[in-house]
Write a structure and sequence with these properties.
With 320 residues, the protein is an alpha+beta fold. It has nine helices and 14 strands. The chain has helices spanning 11-22, 28-38, 86-101, 114-121, 169-172, 179-191, 205-214, 265-279, 294-303; strands spanning 2-5, 43-50, 53-61, 70-77, 105-111, 126-137, 150-152, 157-159, 165-168, 223-227, 233-241, 248-256, 284-290, 306-317. The protein has a 14-stranded mixed sheet with strand order 1-2-3-4-5-14-6-13-12-11-10-9-8-7, sandwiched between helices. The radius of gyration is 21 Å and the shape is globular.
Length: 320
């Protein structure tokens, strides 16, 4: 086994490994774009190679979503080759990089398979949050089965509980001053009111808007808002499309301001997002939720989401 730095020639194999383990729908184009973005930053990728085949990957360094002083750590090994010391070798090889930058903490995300979580715990990581991934099959999903509101036209606006209407961001920004800044503030207000949202650093507005509205998977028509008669935005679901050929989407956030909860708005937001995705020809939606967020998990269950893989988000002091 050889541990070596990643080169551009490795991108295809690295993407295949990531998609085997995480099913992220990563494309080589996106992977290359991300590598280019991180060039010159405090970030490194190491690969484990056996008989000319890439069987493991370790990535570590700055992640703008993390608090200042913390660094990301991800070790990935092909499922068929675990328990052979590949992950340990990759993790050990990263330590020289961390020694150069002396982070306060390392953050990692691992699948919730017992053997993987146990591997991380033996290296000093502790669980911060357990995220559950859920899948909605849009080929069998029927938006008409949820009659709390009426979809109007092509789904650009709906009537919802007690005068609150739902509308796509694409429609709302045509008539809303500084709509992008308003979306940024609403998203992060709602994120910080979730069980695990406060663990993330709030990115600069410009950076977040590039991701939300200009990245390859962004989809303004897939962002839905709950709007009061006075024009106040009180709820949101933000959906993007996978950039591979799987015809899937991912819901990154669904949230409602506390004063407007209990009206079925979270359900309505997810239903109209799913309806829009189905209209656009997508075949399924994924979403991740904290295992302690019982309310949104109940919404998912009512809509027909099925549990798939799960993830643990972990932390450890680097020099402990």
């Amino acid at each position: 086994m050889q541990i070596r730095p990643q080169t551009e020639a490795d991108y295809v194999a690295a993407v295949a490994l990531i998609n085997t383990v995480f099913d992220e729908g990563m494309t080589v184009e996106n992977y290359a774009r991300e590598a280019e973005r991180k060039a010159g930053q405090a970030f490194t990728v190491l690969l484990a190679e056996v008989d000319g085949q890439i069987v493991g990957r370790a990535a570590g360094g700055i992640d703008p979503r993390l608090p200042r002083g913390e660094m990301a750590c991800q070790v990935t090994v092909h499922p068929s080759l675990r328990r052979q010391g590949i992950g340990r070798a990759l993790f050990d090889a990263l330590q020289g990089f961390y020694a150069e930058h002396n982070p306060s903490n390392l953050r990692a995300t691992v699948s919730d398979e017992p053997e993987v979580a146990g591997w991380a715990e033996r290296r000093g990581f502790r669980t911060m949050h357990h995220n559950l991934e859920n899948w909605l099959d849009l080929t069998t999903f029927d938006p008409a089965a949820f009659g709390a509101f009426e979809v109007i036209g092509t789904g650009e606006a709906v009537k919802a509980a007690k005068g609150v209407r739902l509308s796509s961001f694409a429609a709302e920004r045509e008539q809303t001053a500084k709509a992008e800044s308003k979306l940024y503030r609403l998203y992060h207000d709602l994120l910080n009111d979730t069980p695990d949202g406060g663990d993330w650093a709030t990115p600069p507005e410009e950076n977040w808007l590039k991701w939300a509205l200009q990245s390859p998977g962004s989809w303004p028509e897939g962002i839905w808002l709950a709007v009061t008669p006075a024009g106040k935005w009180v709820g949101l679901t933000l959906m993007q499309r996978y950039t591979d050929e799987s015809r899937r989407g991912h819901i990154f956030m669904t949230g409602v301001k506390r004063a407007y909860r209990g009206r079925g708005l979270a359900t309505a937001l997810k239903v109209v997002a799913a309806a829009r995705a189905k209209e656009a020809g997508l075949v399924g939606l994924t979403t991740l939720n904290d295992a302690s967020n019982k309310q949104i998990l109940a919404v998912n269950h009512r809509l027909g989401f099925q549990k798939r893989a799960g993830f643990y988000r972990l932390i450890k002091p680097w020099n402990a």
